[in-house]
Design a protein that fits this description.
By secondary structure, the chain is of the alpha/beta class. It has 7 helices and 6 strands, in the order αβαβαβαβαβαβα. The protein has one domain: Spore Coat Polysaccharide Biosynthesis Protein SpsA, Chain A (Alpha-Beta Complex), CATH 3.90.550.10. The strands form 2 sheets. The protein has a 4-stranded mixed β-sheet, with helices on one face. The chain has a two-stranded parallel sheet with strand order 1-2.
């Protein structure tokens, strides 16, 4: 999360309630990575931690980017199944239900946003990026950057080089090289109710272009 103080408590409580009641899930933890938030996010999760033994918090002293945040969560998780979920409230944890069925026969189960609830700009940017990823890297997926995915922890590398919007592209390229089993399924997507989106900002787009160039050189 980054500056999700108005969203994180609701998301955390809903997630813990669902995971606690799901009979398929024998044990779980919720790892929140605070990627240099400057709002009241830290204060909010401190209060959550006092009341809940399922919470583990990882903090970055400054904003280090999406990729580094995801990898901090991965390195600090203790179970072999890792579900990555954005902290903006646009996904619900119950989308994991169907993924748990598919992960039995796959290494990665990735969501694609069904009826995406974003601005037209964000939707078109996502479609354009999916096209670019197919042309440049041969990745034929509907929604590479969907923020809801389930991984077997042991199939991930310890280090990736891309930290901006193409982080998942690097993961999927490595997965294809290893001939891992990947399944893509639809997940529900909801409007953001609080806070501001940053994934389509000019800064992130420019960082993504830089990462695309680096990834192309490594690929070739």
């Amino acid at each position: 999360m980054h500056n999700e103080g108005k969203n994180i408590e609701k998301i955390f409580n809903e997630s813990v309630e669902y995971l606690s009641q799901n009979r398929k899930i024998k044990a779980f933890e919720v790892v929140i990575v605070d990627d240099g938030s400057t709002d009241n996010s830290a204060e909010t999760i401190n209060k959550l931690g006092i009341k809940n033994p399922f919470l583990k918090v990882v903090r970055h002293p400054k904003n280090m980017g999406f990729g580094k945040a995801i990898m901090s969560g991965y390195r600090n998780s203790k179970y072999n199944l890792n579900c990555f979920m954005d902290a903006d409230g646009q996904f619900k944890i119950d989308s994991i239900e169907e993924m748990l069925e598919y992960i039995e026969d796959n290494d990665i189960v990735m969501g694609y946003r069904l009826r995406r609830k974003d601005s037209l700009y964000r939707i078109m940017l996502g479609k354009f990026y999916a096209f670019i990823a197919m042309i440049l890297f041969g990745l034929k997926y509907k929604d590479i950057n969907c923020g809801f995915k389930l991984f077997r922890k042991d199939v991930l590398c310890k280090y990736y080089h891309c930290n901006a919007g193409i982080f998942y592209t690097e993961i999927l390229l490595n997965a294809q090289k290893k001939k891992l089993r990947i399944k893509e399924i639809p997940v529900s997507h909801y409007p953001r109710l609080n806070g501001n989106q940053t994934g389509g900002s000019l800064k992130i787009v420019l960082h993504s272009i830089k990462d695309i160039v680096k990834l192309l050189f490594r690929k070739n």
